[in-house]
């Protein structure tokens, strides 16, 4: 089921999500809904808080649903290793039409549980590393504009306020 994606400044996007302790049918449904909602919005990653659910769950698929092996479910994820630097444009389904260059680690190692509760580890580089960092930030209540300079952030927030006033947000 496609769920509505919440936008900044919804408070659910700005608080720490709850760890998942029960791996049941409800969690499976949440994960399926997250994939449906992400594909419908043409995103490559979605975190549970973005559909209003404050839990440590994120899904990623860099192939937009074309390659089944690219579908990733990360429950209670943590980054255990970071290397290098990359500086690329980033966007977010909760900040529509806003793009900005964000500095991120070039390579990361992630430890997470799957939807059945099994722990696994995964390396990511380039875009996948960026997706891991962006989505795990969401689970910590951090939006990407917190990762840019204060000057750029002020400009972005001003643009958002203008769009809100015009009823276009
Ligand atoms: Ni995002």
Could you please describe the fold and organization of this structure?
It is a single chain. The protein has 169 residues and is of the alpha+beta class. It has a single domain (11-165), classed as Peptide Deformylase (Alpha-Beta Complex). It has 3 helices and 7 strands, in the order αβββββββαα. It has helices spanning 25-40, 126-139, 150-165; strands at 45-47, 57-60, 72-83, 86-92, 95-104, 107-113, 119-125. A 5-stranded antiparallel sheet has the order 1-2-3-6-7, sandwiched between helices. The model has no long low-confidence stretch (mean pLDDT 97). The structure holds nickel (II) ion (NI). The site of nickel (II) ion has 5 residues, from α2.
SSE run: HEEEEEEEHH
Number of strands: 7
Strand content: 25-35%
Q: How many domains would you count in the coordinates?
A: 1
Task: Give the CATH class.
Answer: Alpha Beta
Q: Can you give the mean pLDDT? A: 97
Unreliable residue runs: none
**Ligand list:** nickel (II) ion
- Total of DSSP H or I helical runs spanning 4+ residues: 3
Radius of gyration computed on alpha carbons: 15 Å
Distance between the termini: 23 Å
Q: What is the CATH topology classification name?
A: Peptide Deformylase
Q: Please outline the major beta sheet.
A: 5 strands, antiparallel
Rough outline:
globular
Kindly name the structural category.
alpha+beta
CATH homologous superfamily identity: Peptide deformylase
Second rung of CATH, namely the architecture? Alpha-Beta Complex
Summarize the amount of helix as a percent range. Answer: 25-40%
Q: Within the largest sheet, what's the order of strands?
A: 1-2-3-6-7
């Amino acid at each position: 089921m496609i769920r509505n994606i919440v936008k900044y400044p919804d408070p659910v996007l700005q608080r720490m999500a709850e760890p998942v302790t029960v791996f049941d049918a409800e969690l499976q449904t949440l994960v399926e809904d997250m994939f449906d909602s992400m594909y419908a919005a043409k995103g490559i990653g979605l975190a549970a808080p973005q559909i209003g659910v404050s839990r440590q769950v994120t899904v990623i698929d860099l192939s937009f649903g074309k390659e089944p092996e690219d579908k990733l479910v990360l429950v209670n994820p943590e980054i255990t290793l970071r290397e290098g630097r990359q500086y690329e444009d980033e966007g977010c389904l909760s900040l529509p039409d806003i793009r900005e260059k964000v500095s991120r680690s070039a390579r990361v190692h992630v430890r997470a549980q799957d939807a059945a509760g099994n722990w696994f580890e995964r390396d990511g580089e380039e875009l996948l590393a960026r997706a891991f960092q962006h989505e795990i930030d969401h689970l910590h209540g951090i939006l990407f504009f917190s990762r840019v300079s204060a000057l750029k952030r002020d400009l972005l927030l001003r643009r958002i306020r203008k769009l809100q006033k015009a009823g276009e947000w």
